[in-house]
Amino acid sequence: MGIRQAQRVRTAHRFIKAAFGIDAARDPRVCRVELLGDCVAVARVRVPGCTVPRLVVARRQSTGRVIRLRRESRADLATLGELVSCLEHLYARFGGPNGEPPRA
């Protein structure tokens, strides 16, 4: 992992912790954390008894405050196909996990 990518993951960890209280670096339920664009963090969190992880999405506002994006967060995904579709929608709206710009 490069330095820039590690900084992006660390920023995403801070956003998720501020918005949801989940310590993504230490909590074993967290599968993956990504920073979309410059201000949106997505975390995949395992739920006991479910095969598909839940998505939690947080965004940093221009004032520096971090908020939950409840409309984009998903807990009711039934299949991995729905998870991939939801992630593609988030990537198109906010940008890719490697700093790519949003798709128009």
Largest sheet: 4 strands, antiparallel
What strand line-up does the widest sheet have?
1-2-3-4
Beta strands, count: 4
What series of H and E elements makes up the topology? Answer: HEEEEH
Secondary structural class: alpha+beta
Which strand-content bin applies to the residues? Answer: 15-25%
Number of helices: 2
Give the % helix.
25-40%
Can you tell me the overall shape? globular
**Low-confidence segments:** none
Rounded average pLDDT: 90
Number of separate structural domains: 1
Compute the CA-based radius of gyration. Answer: 13 Å
Distance between the termini: 29 Å
Structural descriptors:
104 residues, alpha+beta, 4 strands
What does this structure look like?
The protein has helices at residues 3-20, 80-94; strands at 30-36, 40-45, 54-60, 66-68. It has 104 residues and is α+β, with helices and mostly antiparallel strands. The protein has one domain. A four-stranded antiparallel sheet has the order 1-2-3-4, sandwiched between helices. The termini are far apart.
